[in-house]
């Protein structure tokens, strides 16, 4: 039972707008209600994404490469819209309203998707795509249009929901209370556990229902679970702690850039103490010499203050920004090289949701009389993550700490390990696909059906990329949160999620480029309409080479990046002291 705690939570309000009483608000009870909506979101999202490609190819009769791009564009848009959701939460709605609104939008999208797969009018006539020259009729514009509408309503809901769930969960704990601060650390562990649990249920139970019962039933379960989660979320309205919106960091970044551009012709003062500063000394960030062009945003000009302005008035931030605000933007700019070189991992990851699932659909998946659904192979992702985290925490880290001392792997080292594992995963995928194609070539003139090659040959690529995700996800999240300014934590989380988005979009771009330069009029090439007639192994090989090049670029960027050390503010008087 949660202990009663006296006092009020720092910087937090209750649902009436009064200071939040610790004994009546927040804590594990409130956090658990928020985690409930997260597990249902993950159940729905992964239940749709991991098995969507089989529906697009097998039911909608779309080409393999087109189907892969639809899945990656859907996933990429979902994560990209996290930036929109974060902006709305920070600037207008607050996290509570953002979660409520976008969870409802996602539920409506899932209902529309269930209707799309249920009604015969919204899909082409059935035919056997495994038969050569089958002349299967592809879905028409109206059918694909309705499917796209449903998917992108879901993507909008995911973007708004994911941007605020973790942040609203941490709002339920007071960082200035030692006991609650310790509970917050456990919240992150349980948050990741809930994500993994939702994913495991999606790739096993939901995928089985989609393939063996009815796809519309599976999507119906998703929509019902989301509706129940929303009701549970609303039940905690009086229990939650709320934080005031402080404005969007994106606006603050643009203010610094605009102010610097406006004063681009003005010379920088020799003494940095002459630059404008209005932050309290205890919260100031010391000046650095990197990206000195941005320092021009802090140059004080006569026109920055109105002639009749009252004493102590704050200048227009689009004309003049403080040194601390400029340094915050510099800190975000320094993150960009690491940000750019982690996108490639998620491009490799995207293949596990698309082409790898399609590979599995052509292979022998039987265990006795039971047929494993192709999409359920992604369960090895979850197992790889859980095993990797357990081995890392219980075996690798203790040995590492004894050898090198605490704190173990740094966030940049974890990212590097993840990039290496994904590169090995793509190499393993290329070798496995070469073996699968050799069997497919021998079977072309024989009866149709699954190829006489075990689906378990795909386990190495799933396991390697999954293990890589365990390292890179935690490494990226730690890096972007700890190395970003205090006032831009939400922004940095969105920056992290944008790497996932761009990874999926890069995958779609590569698929389109490869199909254009290696394809032919009869739908063949590396990425043929039917993968048994293509060279998917060459595409995986290309990704392996690009991953190696990206890893070298990452090492250069990681060596260039220097973690910011605390610096004492200058003892000299600032421009603010004289104004």
TrEMBL record:
Subcellular location(s) per record: Membrane
One cellular component (GO) term of this entry: membrane
Membrane-topology descriptor: Multi-pass membrane protein
Residues passing through the membrane, by range: 74-92, 99-117, 146-170, 191-210, 216-234, 335-352, 372-391, 412-431, 451-473, 494-514, 539-561
GO BP annotation list: oligopeptide transport
Record flagged with keyword Transcription: no
Entry's Gene Ontology molecular function annotations: transmembrane transporter activity
Keyword line: Membrane, Transmembrane, Transmembrane helix
UniProt cross-references to InterPro entries, sorted A to Z: MFS_trans_sf (IPR036259), POT_fam (IPR000109), PTR2_symporter_CS (IPR018456)
Coiled coil: none
SUPFAM superfamilies: MFS general substrate transporter (SSF103473)
Family, as annotated: Belongs to the major facilitator superfamily. Proton-dependent oligopeptide transporter (POT/PTR) (TC 2.A.17) family.
Record protein name field: Putative proton-dependent oligopeptide transporter family, major facilitator superfamily
Lineage, opening ranks: Eukaryota, Viridiplantae, Streptophyta, Embryophyta, Tracheophyta
């Amino acid at each position: 039972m949660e202990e009663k705690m006296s006092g009020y939570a720092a910087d937090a309000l209750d649902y009436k707008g009064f200071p939040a009483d610790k004994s009546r608000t927040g804590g594990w009870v409130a956090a658990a209600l928020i985690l409930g909506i997260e597990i249902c979101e993950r159940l729905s999202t992964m239940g749709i994404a991991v098995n969507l490609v089989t529906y697009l190819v097998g039911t909608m009769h779309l080409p393999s490469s087109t189907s892969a791009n639809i899945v990656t564009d859907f996933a990429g848009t979902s994560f990209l819209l996290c930036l929109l959701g974060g902006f709305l939460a920070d600037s207008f709605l607050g996290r509570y309203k953002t979660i409520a609104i976008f969870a409802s939008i996602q539920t409506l999208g899932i209902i529309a998707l269930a209707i799309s797969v249920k009604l015969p009018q919204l899909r082409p006539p059935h035919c056997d795509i495994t038969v050569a020259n089958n002349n299967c009729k592809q879905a028409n514009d109206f059918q694909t249009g309705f499917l796209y509408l449903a998917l992108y309503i879901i993507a909008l809901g995911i973007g708004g929901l994911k941007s605020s769930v973790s942040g609203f969960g941490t709002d339920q704990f007071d960082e200035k209370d030692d006991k609650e601060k310790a509970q917050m650390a456990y919240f992150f562990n349980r948050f990741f556990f809930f994500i993994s649990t939702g994913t495991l249920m999606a790739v096993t139970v939901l995928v089985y229902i989609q393939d063996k019962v009815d796809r519309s039933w599976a999507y119906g379960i998703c929509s019902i679970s989301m509706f129940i989660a929303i009701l549970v979320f609303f039940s905690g309205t009086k229990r939650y702690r709320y934080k005031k919106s402080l404005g969007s960091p994106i606006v603050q970044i643009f203010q610094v850039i605009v102010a610097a551009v406006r004063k681009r012709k003005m010379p920088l003062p020799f003494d940095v103490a002459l630059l404008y500063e209005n932050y309290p000394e205890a919260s100031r960030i010391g000046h650095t010499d990197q990206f000195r062009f941005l320092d021009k945003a802090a140059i004080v000009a006569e026109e920055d203050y109105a002639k009749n302005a009252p004493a102590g008035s704050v200048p227009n931030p689009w004309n003049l920004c403080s040194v601390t605000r400029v340094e915050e933007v510099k800190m975000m700019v320094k993150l960009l090289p690491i940000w750019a070189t982690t996108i490639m991992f998620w491009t490799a990851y995207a293949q596990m949701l698309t082409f790898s699932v399609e590979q599995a659909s052509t292979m022998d998946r039987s265990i006795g009389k039971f047929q494993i659904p192709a999409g359920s192979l992604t369960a090895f992702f979850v197992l790889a993550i859980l095993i990797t985290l357990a081995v890392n925490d219980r075996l690798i880290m203790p040995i590492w700490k004894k050898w090198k001392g605490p704190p173990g792997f740094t966030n940049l080292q974890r990212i590097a390990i993840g990039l290496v594992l994904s590169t090995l995963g793509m190499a393993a995928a290329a070798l496995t696909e070469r073996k699968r194609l050799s069997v497919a070539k021998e079977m072309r003139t024989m009866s149709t059906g699954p190829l006489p090659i075990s689906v378990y040959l795909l386990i190495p690529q799933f396991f390697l990329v999954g293990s890589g995700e365990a390292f890179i996800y935690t490494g990226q999240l730690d890096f972007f949160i700890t190395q970003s300014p205090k006032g831009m934590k939400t922004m940095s989380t969105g920056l992290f999620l944008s790497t996932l988005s761009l990874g999926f979009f890069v995958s779609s771009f590569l698929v389109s480029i490869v199909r254009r330069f290696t394809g032919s009029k009869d739908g063949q090439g590396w990425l043929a309409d039917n993968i048994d007639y293509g060279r998917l192994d060459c595409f995986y090989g290309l990704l392996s080479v690009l991953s190696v090049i990206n890893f070298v670029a990452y090492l250069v960027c990681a060596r260039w990046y220097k973690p910011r050390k605390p610096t004492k503010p200058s003892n000299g008087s600032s421009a603010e002291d004289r104004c």
